[in-house]
Amino acid sequence: MIKNYTKLAWRNLLKDKAYSAINILGLSIGMAVALLIALWIWDEVTFNEYHKNHKQIAQVLGNQTVNGEIETYTSVAMPLGNELRTLFGADFKHVSMASWNFRHTLAIGDKKINQEGMWVEPVFPAMFTLKILNGKLLGLDDPTSIMLSESVAKALFGKEDPLNKLIKMDNKDSYKVTGVYEDLPKNTTLSGVKILLPWEKYLATEPWLNKAKTEWGNHSFQTFVQINDKAIFDKVTNKIKNASMIHLKEAVNGKEELLLQPMDNWRLHNEFKNGKLQGGRIQFVWLFSIIGFFVLLLACINFMNLSTARSEKRAKEVGIRKTVGSLRRQLVGQFLSESVLVALIAILFSITMVQLLLPFFNEMADKNTSVPWSNGLFWLIILCFTIATGLIAGSYPAFYLSSFKPIQVLKGTYRIGRFASLPRKVLVVIQFTVSITLIIGTIIVFQQIEFAKNRPVGYTRSGLITVDMTTPDLYRHYDVIRGDLLATGMVENMAESSSPTTMVNSTNIGFSWDGKDINSLPSLGTIGVTHEYGKTIGWKIKEGRDFSKDFATDSNAFILNEAAVKLTRLKNIIGKNIKWGDKQFTVVGIVNDMVMQSPYSPVQPTVFLMNPEWANLITIRMKANSSIPDALSKISKVFKKYNPGAPFVYQFTDEEYGKKFSDEERIGNLALFFAVLAILISCLGLFGLASFVAEQRTKEIGVRKVLGATILNIWGMVSKEFVLLVVISFLIAIPIAWFNLHQWLQGYEYRTEISFWVFVLAGMGAMLITLLTVSFQAIKAALANPVKSLRTE
Amino acid sequence: MLLQLNKIFKWVNVGGSRTFLLRDINLTVQQGEFISIMGPSGSGKSTLLHIIGMLDDADEGEYVFADQNVFKLKEKQRSQLYKQHIGFVFQAYHLIDELTVYENIETPLIYQDMKGSERKAVVADILDRFGIVGKKDLFPSQLSGGQQQLVGIARALASNPKVILADEPTGNLNSKQGEEIMELFKKLNKEDGVTIIQVTHSEKNASYGSRTIHLLDGRVDQIVNS
Questions:
Q1: A603 phi, psi to nearest 5 deg
Q2: pLDDT by residue (tens digit) across B123-164?
Q3: Which pLDDT score is estimated for A793?
Q4: How far apart are CA A205 and CA A182, in angstroms?
Q5: Interchain CB contact of A12 with B (< 8 Å)
Q6: Of A4, A12, A316, the CB nearest to B94
Q7: Which chain B residues contact residue A322 at CB under 8 A?
Q8: What is the edge-to-edge ordering of all strands in the sheet holding B163-167?
Q9: Which of A430, A610, B61, B131 has the fewest CB atoms nearer than 10 Å to its CB?
Q10: What pTM does this model have?
Q11: CA A157, CA A106: separation in Å to the nearest integer?
């Protein structure tokens, strides 16, 4: 019987090729979208599973009460590592302190590359189950050792064996290669860590690091732990909660509670509000799951609509089959096997589509996913998914078609009444509601990005480049480097600072001033700069003056941004003193707020102080009229001269600033991509439906034409029905879209208003697309010769 | 006795008033009879045939087919009864356009859950009997009206029914084709003992039968035995 069904289904497909093509194409696109989203979600939910101990690994975070609010930081104090090991050793299998992922210059003879890496304790590679390709897992035992990822080893040594070779780092010390590990895949949090360096050596690189060994107030490090197999995160968190507070009490009035952030949460549940987990990227997983579901639903609706619209053609067959003895159940079976066949054909197309779209999709989503061709489970899931889709898409048509009464259809008295098309209309409304909602959503996402992009940043961004001072050669040569750069004629100004304009690298507490509320513990961004910093970036002094060489006292001066002034609640602040630690600073100027962090958040209260000692970054402003390649080549010569041990690597501030939008832009692009496909699917369905409506009404149209209707009349008559459906969808979509986007925008403190024109635009767009789609069929029907259409009756 | 209708009533309610389609129909049909049902348009011929064919229900009355009370059977049992014993022939042939001659004839056998090999033998036998072996792979659209009706009858006979119900089987055919079809019915009735109940407009076709039932406004007007 299955064979019989399949044969018949196949013939039916071939018989009406246009119909089948629309059906299969629509379903393929829908399934392709669902597959792409499934691959994306799979990649997200299996994030970090490369590490075999991902269920036991956690990072220690600190909930700090600052300015009356609880903020969650990943930075902790250095003594914490030993404290956890000694006091809570029963709960932890491994504890490793780690630095941030710093950029370093690695050199072998003349070959120099810049790579990022972390200083970690020897147990780190084992804890994160790095795959050792060469050398040993415990490679960081020796303080002069270095472990490389495979890609770095290749870049430095090519085909040579890197083991035990010496690498000069940052033009200072040499390190011996003791291990090469497989690069961490893109779907791990630590994928950017390309080299591993010994913790012990780290402490010897700077005096303040050595000092930090016993300082509980210096939060500049990370702690990773692996709990015992039987331990439970929550219970361990409860035990270690106050581990740092006990020591802090003596030092400051702040409050800190420790907590464990399990590795399985690092990717998707990583946002904290008031010290509590508040979600994170998981919202995108939900968002895309919903989009995927709806796009697939749209495709299934197409199938349902086209199948039932075509029912008049199948009605006779149903009648005959029933009179020769078919049970309804058997007819349902027949129609379902037809839809499953269509789904099976569609999945072939959609897998092909996915394969073709994947490079583009990966680029857009910043992923590295692929179709797991050789995974049997994948194919089993695909098969189940396909059959399920076929059954869902075929369910309504199957029950609808098999319900026909044989006498009616065979007598020819059977007509699809007004009532019969109601479910179809409801389905079309669902399709367009989803499409319009997606259009509105996409527009608002981009509007929000544009809104934040147009936010005045408070300095002149274009023409700025920054250079990390990775080697000691660049330090203490400020004036000569600056002089040489200016002498190129391409550089307008140059300065050094402890943060780029796109970041605030350090935030501190311990400030006080006259009239400060004793109970508050304000924290301010602190940026050390050189005299020329303000002129270089082009900040705007609002009151007072910029740092100047004319005042020797400026080494004890502060320039505050507007947000900081507001925080102090001081009036006429110029000339007043602010105490930081045990040192007095005088406020000499107020600078307009600059957007240095998230473009969606309020500006952080920040103080700038004249402290070249802190600087680790050079900012250069190129002359506006100079050609950038020329300027860069001349600048690079200066750096080669003073910093021969490192390659000349720079960042455009414009680009760095642009990266702040990459997450939102990525989401926006993906949403746009899916919205376009959703609309395409809906239009395909509409096109097919319009052709059936036109066909069904051929006689009516013929009669009307004979009675004197113009082509315009007929066009209006056929289109009106669909236009009405779009209007209804529009009215339903407005509140749904408004509510959801309003919620989404609440996540941004600096956010655009949802303006009415967005809805109007989306509605008009949907209407236009509908008219274009339907008009083709409507005009075709209107142009037909009535004599012909009437004769067919 | 093959089937018996007792006091069959069927009506529709139109705007509060009741219109009778059938009124007090009593009919007994013996195995091997050839019955014609005649009457003007709207007299209830087709409705009666549909009730006999179990495609439709009566509103009142009793219908006994092969000793079973049809109206009291469950859907599944009724379907079982009907697909074993009844074959339908239509005025408009009603072949499935997407199936070949062979497959059209095979369809009722599939619904009787007959095994593949057995089906093949039955279909081959019927094709042979009707002399249409050469046409077995053609689709209905490739056949003339008479040939299509021949296939329609072949299909009705495939399941070896006790009775064939024919609703104006020659209505769409020219007189020569019509005559051939009627001769075929006669032969089936005489030689194979198949009971035939046909609805017809033509006196000539009616005369093939052994009994003619004249309907008027839903009731039996007269019964003529020939």
A1: -70, 135
A2: 999 999 888 999 999 999 999 988 999 999 999 988 889 999
A3: 39
A4: 28
A5: yes
A6: A316
A7: 55
A8: B86-89, B163-167, B195-199, B34-38, B211-216, B219-225
A9: B131
A10: 0.82
A11: 12
Taken in order A129, A132, A135, A140, the sign of the CA dihedral is negative
Q: Strands B60-65 and B68-69: what pairing?
A: antiparallel
Rounded to 5°, the CA angle B173-B179-B180 comes to: 95
Tell me which chain B residues have a C-beta less than 8 angstroms from the C-beta of A327. 76, 79, 111
Q: How far apart are CA A559 and CA A610, in angstroms?
A: 9
| Chain A residues lying within 8 Å of B90, measured CB to CB | 410
Mean pLDDT by 10 residues, chain A (793 residues): 80 86 92 94 94 95 79 88 93 94 89 92 95 93 94 93 93 93 94 95 88 84 94 93 78 74 93 85 89 91 85 82 85 90 94 94 90 91 94 90 82 58 86 91 90 91 90 87 93 93 84 81 88 94 93 92 91 91 91 92 92 90 90 92 87 91 87 89 87 78 76 85 91 94 88 91 91 87 72 47
Yes or no, beta carbons of B79 and A410 under 8 Å apart: no
- List own/partner pairs for A661-669 with CB under 8 A and 24 or more apart: A661/A449, A661/A452, A661/A453, A661/A599, A662/A366, A664/A445, A664/A448, A664/A449, A664/A452, A665/A449, A666/A364, A666/A365, A666/A366, A667/A284, A667/A287, A667/A445, A668/A442, A668/A445, A668/A446, A668/A449, A669/A364
Q: Which residue of B has its CA nearest to A13?
A: B98
DSSP state of A49: T
Distance CA A780, CA A720 (A): 16
Q: How many Å lie between the alpha carbon of A28 and the closest alpha carbon of chain B?
A: 26
Within 8 A of B153 by CB-CB distance, chain A residues are none
Question: Which chain A positions have a beta carbon within 8 Å of B155's beta carbon?
Answer: 324
C-alpha pair distances (Å), A118 with each of A122, A148, A153, B105: 12, 11, 16, 79
| Length reported for chain A | 793
CA nearest neighbour of A685 among A1, A153, A13, A30? A30
Give the helix/strand (H/E) hosting A277. strand A276-277
pLDDT above 60 (res B25): yes
Q: So what's the ipTM on this one?
A: 0.78
**How far B109 CA sits from the closest chain A CA (Å)?**
9
- How close A3 comes to chain B (CA, Å)? 11
SS3 A366: coil
- Quote the pLDDT of residue A252: 53
CA distance B139 to A713: 41
CATH number for the domain that contains residue B159: 3.40.50.300
The chain A residue lying nearest B95, using CA atoms, is A320
Contacts of A323 in chain B (CB under 8 A): 53, 55, 88, 94
| 3-state SS class at A224 | strand
pLDDT (0 to 100) of residue A657: 92
Beta strands in A124-273 (DSSP E): 132-135, 145-149, 166-169, 174-181, 195-198, 219-227, 256-262, 272-273
Other Cβ atoms less than 10 A from the Cβ of A370: the count is 13
Mutation pick from B76, B107, B119 vs chain A, by most beta carbons of A within 10 Å, is B107
Chain A contact for B155 (CB, 8 A cutoff) = yes
Contact: A1, B95; criterion CB under 8 Å: no
> Which residue in chain B has the smallest CA separation from A12?
B98
How many contacts does A have with B, using Cβ atoms within 8 A? 52
Q: Provide the residue range defining the domain that includes B117.
A: 3-225
Over the stretch B71-107, which tens digit does the pLDDT of each residue have? 998 888 888 888 889 998 988 888 888 889 999 999 8
Q: How far apart are CA A274 and CA A269, in angstroms?
A: 15
**Integer angstrom CA distances of residue A413 from A417, A469, A493, B49:** 11, 87, 89, 17
Whether B94 and A407 lie within 8 Å, measured CB to CB: no
Give backbone dihedrals phi and psi of A654, rounded to 5 degrees, phi first.
Answer: -55, -45
* Amino acid of residue A285: V
